[in-house]
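Sequence only, no structure available. Ideas?
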Amino acid sequence: MDTARPGISEKSAKGGVFQQLISLAGNVNIPLKNQPDVPKEARYVVSVELDDLDFQRFSRVLIVENGELMVRWKDVVLSLPDEWQSAVLVYRGHGINQKVLPTLIEYFDNNAVEVGFFYDYDPAGLDMVEQLSNDKHYWIVPVGNLELFKSINKLDEFLKQLEQLDRLKNRNVSTSIREHLTFIEKNTLAITQEHLIRNQCLLVSCKLK
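Reply:
I predicted one. Tokens follow.
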């Protein structure tokens, strides 16, 4: 709107119009302040400002890396471990909202909301989870199935992520991160969330400690 003032082309605005909003979905009501909650029966993705969220009434949230999973959230929910099928899915963002993510997570932590992460199973995904998480959080990972993993693996992506791999190897990370990092490096894995869901990989929840 600001770019539509006289003498300024609105086409010159940089960034997507939804990049400042928080996107949420899931098979559960989404609690909002000063307005009706978004009912789970709505079956759509909602984008709101940070201040619209009623953090005290959330119980469990799952932060996901890729936007496509938000659009296909009904398929995602059915693939999650039972205890996470009632979580609100939160998109990690790709603009201003991505920069707000640490603040969003802090608000959830301060209100005793269980926080989980579901990211790509690759060095970059581990790197992002490690930077955002603490020992109160959870992580959704696939159960080891090398035969399946090799059939959906993106070796070229793994090779692009050697910098993140080395960074994690030289960092003091949690036991859980270290275990999966070693497995990913040994088998040169880079598997997207989309492939994990599409191929019905068995997913489990583990504590990030």
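The first strand starts at residue 22 and ends at 25.
Hope that gets you unstuck.
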